[in-house]
Design goal:
Layout: H1 3-13, H2 30-36, E1 43-47, H3 60-72, E2 76-80, E3 86-88, H4 93-96, H5 98-102, H6 106-121, H7 131-144, E4 151-155, H8 177-186, E5 197-201, H9 215-231, E6 235-239, E7 272-276, H10 293-309, E8 315-320, H11 327-347, E9 355-359, H12 379-385, E10 387-392
Helix pairs in contact: 2-3, 3-6, 8-9, 10-11
Length: about 400
């Protein structure tokens, strides 16, 4: 099983645990909320108060954590995740007066409301989004406050448009989580999060004009974030709380993130159809196994039907790879992947004589350089260089 599938299965199995608390207003008294959020810690809220993501809001689990933190006297901070993350310190009366907090009185709930108001009022002071840098700032703030095991709650889409995890790079959204981690490690861009718990809330949910993500791409973005944070030493929780509604009003711009489109496969004479690692016909790293076999079959079915309709028609399949390993190995793997696509087309009714396969590794005219000057593999370009090119005639 690949690293991506292992991470997604952990999410599904609940190992990346989602904890649910009832909302505080009219449903659960403060004392019960504190009991359900036992083991209170400092809370650092990293909020995406920017364009193209829904306005940040605190879900019941976060309210639960906040209530417990305030009652226990732990610090609460807000970090706005722009390209220049800034720390906001809410002024909480009950924390200034320990007696108020100890009473479990409405003052605690009042403080939670003050935090919610501060989140709603937060605005960026610089363009762009860099959640990864904001998490590092939140971790540094927690260490400064003497809370090295604080809860870091990221409330954002996770679609950074700059920094080390820049999703404007074509192919990155579809990249293998392990390769993204490898790139960040090699370039020294993994944050230092050992001892922290990071709660991911609203990952992959967008607001206009940013194109929405399908469940498939939300899942891969979540898997990338989970892998990166775990590699950084954090425990990870995923709260599947869909972000909804418009973004905040701000003059600070963000860049649109390219979302892989569903490929419309329309076969015809002299046409070349390219299936990259961001398409439905995508392979697990270093194997001939499809990431989603059913999705691959659906994408290849129109080509098979086109071949079946006229036995004089032909398909030439050329496999390509990223620049990983010796060229001989690249050529062999790319040929095997082209053969795998050929096998699917034959299973759908095409004749073997109608299909020719070859592999060229990373030696093809459309190759995009996928290593930086230091030789580090770049996950986005590498994903797009892994392809099967189908020429019809």
């Amino acid at each position: 099983m690949s690293g991506r599938l292992r991470i997604l299965s952990l999410v599904a199995a609940g190992l990346l645990m989602t904890v649910s608390c009832a909302s505080r207003e009219g449903q659960i008294p403060a004392a019960t909320t504190a009991q359900r959020c036992a083991g209170a810690q400092a809370v650092m809220l990293i909020v995406g108060a920017h364009r193209d993501a829904p306005k940040p809001a605190l879900d019941p689990q976060v309210v639960c954590q906040l209530t417990a933190a305030i009652q226990a006297g732990w610090p609460v901070r807000i970090v706005v995740a722009s390209s220049q993350p800034q720390v906001i310190t809410p002024q909480l009366p009950s924390q200034a007066n320990a007696t108020l907090a100890e009473q479990h009185s409405p003052w605690v709930e009042h403080d939670v409301q003050l935090v919610e108001d501060a989140v709603a009022a937060a605005r960026p002071v610089a363009p762009g989004v860099d959640d990864l840098a904001a998490l590092e700032v939140a971790a540094d703030e927690a260490h400064t406050l003497g809370a090295p095991d604080a809860d870091l709650v990221l409330i954002d889409s996770g679609l950074d448009d700059r920094g080390a995890l820049d999703f404007t790079v074509p192919g990155l959204m579809a990249a293998t989580p392990g390769e993204v981690v490898g790139q960040l490690k090699a370039t020294g861009n993994l944050p230092h999060l050992r001892g922290f718990t990071v709660d991911l809330t609203g990952i992959g949910y967008t607001a206009a004009p940013q194109s929405p993500l399908s469940a498939k791409w939300r899942g891969n973005v979540t898997a990338i974030w989970a892998a990166v944070l775990q590699a950084a030493g954090a425990k990870v929780q995923v709260t599947p709380q869909p972000g909804q509604g418009p973004s905040v009003t701000t003059a600070e711009p963000v860049r649109l993130i390219p979302v892989p489109a569903t490929q419309q496969v329309a076969p015809g004479y002299h046409k070349t159809l390219v299936f990259t690692g961001a398409s439905s016909v995508r392979f697990e790293p270093n194997t001939t196994a499809f990431v989603d076999p059913a999705d691959a079959v659906r994408a290849l079915t129109p080509i098979a039907r086109w071949l079946v309709a006229n036995r004089s028609r032909h398909a030439w399949l050329e496999g390509t790879t990223a620049d990983v390993g010796p060229m001989s190995g690249q050529v062999a793997l790319s040929r095997l992947r082209a053969d795998r696509v050929r096998a699917v087309l034959i299973s759908l009714g095409a004749l073997g004589a109608q299909i020719t396969t070859t592999g060229v590794g990373s030696d093809f005219p459309q190759f995009t350089p996928d290593r930086n000057a230091a030789g580090t593999l770049l996950a986005g370009p590498a994903t797009l260089n892994r392809s099967v090119r189908v020429t019809l005639g």
